[in-house]
Amino acid sequence: MSNPKFRTMGKQFGRRSWAEPWKIKMVEPIKMTSRDDRLKSLQEAGYNTFLLHSEDVYIDLLTDSGTSAMSDRQWAGMMLGDEAYAGSRNFYHLEEAVQKYYGYRYLVPTHQGRGAEHLISRTLIKPGHYVPANMYFTTTRLHQELAGGTFVDVIIDEAHDPANEHPFKGNVSLEKLEALIKRVGADNIPYVSLAGTVNMAGGQPVSMANVRALRGLCDRYGIPIYLDATRMMENAFFIQEREEGYQDKSIATILKEFCSFTDGAWMSAKKDHLVNIGGWLAVNDGDLFDELRNLVVVYEGLHTYGGMAGRDMEALAIGIGEAVEDDHIRARVEQVRYLGTLLTDWEIPIVKPIGGHAIFLDAKSFYSHIPQSQFPSQTLAAELYLDSGIRSMERGTVSAGRDPETGDHRYPSLELTRLTIPRRVYTQAHMDVVAESVKAVYDARGEARGLKMVYEPRYLRFFQARFEPLA
Ligand code: PM9
User: Which residues line ligand 1 (CB under 6 A)?
Assistant: First the structure.
């Protein structure tokens, strides 16, 4: 076959092509702009892709958060919204779906993931506590720090090397965790903060063997495990694909088994669950639930809506059922891989193995002449937008923020620019256009200059910081 797509996919997977398990019923026009228009937009946005108007974007790969296309069933569910202030029937549907697929006992709804992170951090973390995690996530770590905790990264070393092909780069290093427990004492560790998959490591999964062993270690010291389940469906897919004994198990079965090793989870439903807004927190401990259910009314809304409309909860309940379908998750991950395979065929440096929700360009290798103090990932996101109107996201030094103790930039080992694929939104032809643009920017890499930060907000600076090009 002459088509390079078939050559590569055939070589890699040894089977026939996959296709999306849906067809398109409604479309939203997008427009291509001129390079002059894009330069103007970029200058107005202070070289930060978060500050662009979405109308000025051609293919939007900023995030997979809240950007999914809902199904006809979810839209039908929106019409069944029960907008009662208290006791909405849609809440009970949502509760049932979380109990059925994740297996946790009690549910607290929140407006999105960080609402849930706020509640769990505020409830469990006290000043002086240490919170071990398999790499940081921006909002998660900030809430843990605001509650008085000190974040400690206990992910395996391989996760910090973009070229390392370890199949489960999201795994917790039990040695690092046990060393921390011995150093600070189990009483000072309120919980292990476990994410599946690990966003900042490149969408990398945690194995079932690792979470099982983690449970064993935590039980010995009496430490609970709380899971960031935001992209757990994708994690389940990688277990099915790569871990012995799971090939014939469904995504739903794997998800539930994984969650059974944890004490509860928080969720940004805007990702895996195929909705535009929503989140939740679920736990097994009745006393903790009472506290969380009381706190949610202070910060989010009543405990039967938590900041969501009834119609949003209905779409979310339906989305959970669609998201665990094996065909859905396979098409989702394979589309990401399709893009990544095109890029690796052109020897463009990306994080390997290809993760679940995005391609992460390795900006340190891409722009080896730009030091981290000049923000190579931010520069790459700006150059990509300039080339073709494709919007990506910085996941390097700007996202890492400043060390709360020293006030210095934190320079992460992974300096990445993320091309995030929304679920059920773009076609393979869009992926071809994206790959060609990345290639054009790569070919011109020697001409790129770094950026200087001219405005820096106090919290989560990557959202609102402004930059100017260096001469
Ligand atoms: N993730 C993302 O684009 C949204 C904007 S960047 C902060 O990847 C994890 C693993 C996430 C996540 C958001 C949240 C917060 C928690 N955990 O955005 O508040 O990837 O719903 O969730 C983004 P919310």
Answer: 63, 65, 112-114, 137-140, 195, 199, 228, 230, 268, 270, 279
